[in-house]
Amino acid sequence: MKVINASFTIMSNINSQEFLSNIEKFGRVCYKSENSITATSAKSFIARIIKNGHESVIEHEKITVKIVCDRGVSHEIVRHRIASYSQESTRYCNYSNDKFGNELTFIKPVFWEKTSTEYKIWREEMQRVEDSYLKLISLNVPPEQARSVLPNSLKTEIVVTMNLREWRHFFKLRTSKRAHPQMREISIPLLNEMKELLPPIFEDIVVE
Question: Which domains does the chain have, with CATH numbers?
Fold first, then answer.
């Protein structure tokens, strides 16, 4: 049994200047103001269209991120409709195999310290889950049936592709104080990294 922290990796090769220049080039078609493009005009143009609610323009660019989280968080992520997903499958992954270390991997609950009673109870239960899963596999139960005992805490990897407008929507919802703590564990640092990469697109989103 392995316990890890949630994480993410931005898989897209983001050339910030190219992204912003493309958005300005595409967006200025709406106003036939292509002649106003300069080496430094993209940032102010994008800030203006976002302020005016003309966010359809930023749908022309997309970003792909691989997120390592628990199954519960992944269930919330896939509720975002305008996106593409590729997720680790518990039907086809046999966690008793060597490539998985012959064990289950779980995401540590961010809200419990390792020394707490709550964490100890959780860890004991996860150990029981692993024992049950491996026992079922040893009885030649196929993974797609043995997965019935797997909990929300099971680690999953999900590749998420969204256009920039949908990422903005994602961050507005998933960094909110009302969002699940383990969702915020991923969404807040991801937003901060996006802000560094593409400030005009994300800098106006404030985390509560």
Answer: 1-14+62-208 (3.30.1360.170)
